[in-house]
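Re: that chain you flagged

S.,

Sorry for the slow reply, it's been a week of failed gels. I finally had a moment to sit down with the sequence you sent. For the record, here it is as I used it:
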Amino acid sequence: MKMIYWLLALLVVAALGWLAFSWKNAPPEIPFTTVKTEDLVDTLNTNGKAEPISWAAVRAERAGKLGEIRVEKGSVISSGAIIAILDNNEARIALQAAEARVTQVRGDLQTVKQGGSSSALAEIDSNIARLRVEQMNLDQEVAVTDRLVAKNAVPPQEGALLRGRLKVMVEQIRGLQDRRAALVSPGDQTAVDGRLKEAQAAVALAKEKMEQGSLRSPIDGVVFQLDLRPGAFVNPGDLVANVGRVDTMRVNVYVDEPELGRVAVGQPVNITWDARVGKNWVGTVEKLPVQIVSLGNRQVGEVLVSIANPGNDLPPGANINAAVRSRTALKATTIPKEAIRRENGVTGVFLLKGDKVTWRPIETGISNVSRLQITSGLKPGDRIALATDIPLRTGTFVKAATEDAGL
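Prediction finished late last night. Pasting the structure tokens below so you have them in one place:
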């Protein structure tokens, strides 16, 4: 009976030993894929920035505060439309004073024609000018007082008092004008003519400054940049807004210097913008870069692409993604990039022959993100090893696992 137990034990040990030996010497399981035939597009993926095909800057012509902004970003406007207005109080007061001066000098001209002493006229003119300034200030004070009286903030007597002073002042001016009418000499005609021209020039200058306060669009288009707010102070030349045509956009595509050889005029380009998922714009390469520029830590050439922008969905300044279709290989022999290996400086793959692998040098053509064209060394239907941590060499026995690529 004991002999039977010993025999059973020996059989179990032998079986376990055989299993361990078989497991240790079993070929490694390696993933394989099949060489395919397909149309392969060599796509260069990069980034860029969208700009209007034509645009114009609206800049301040004089210093001042922005009193009113009549548009917003995205507004469609016509040439000559007002975008913003500067505070014109100072220019308006200057215009009123200049127009008053013209009125005064025209009155002086009439007085000169009636004769009089030039020295007396100068004195009277000085007094009249002073009184007119005082009259202007008093007019404003009367207007303010009238508003306060209407609100019962001050008694009506104050308004009547100011009007009395204003009436006296008007009578003083009238009296001076009457005196001057008889005191002008014949030679004063030329002097008055000169003062009239100066006053008219002051009116023209004041009107020009008033007009400069209205910032207008120089072209038809869309307001695509408007960063200021009412109350902001601007100096002459400061940018207020940018207006451009955005139905057609120019896209500067940034291509790294080593990749520029893959780009040529006429190649199709697909444009996407992360803010419009699922939306794309199609254009073609129109112009190659004339210089290399720095972009962060990159050295790039700016490739020019024009695209239609119906609906103005792509705004100027948008940071876009660009895919340049540089080359296309029809019915190409292709493999996944992960199957490529380098042995002693030679590019190749491990080809499955029966239950062994053999090293096969290859020559390659174009590629896309995941696949590579094979120009020699492989044929459609060949099975090649994918990337693995298990070292391989010619003659290695393998167990081909289920293909996980190339199907």
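What I noticed first: Residues 44-52+245-328 form a domain with the Elongation Factor Tu (Ef-tu); domain 3 fold (CATH 2.40.30.170).

Talk soon,
D.
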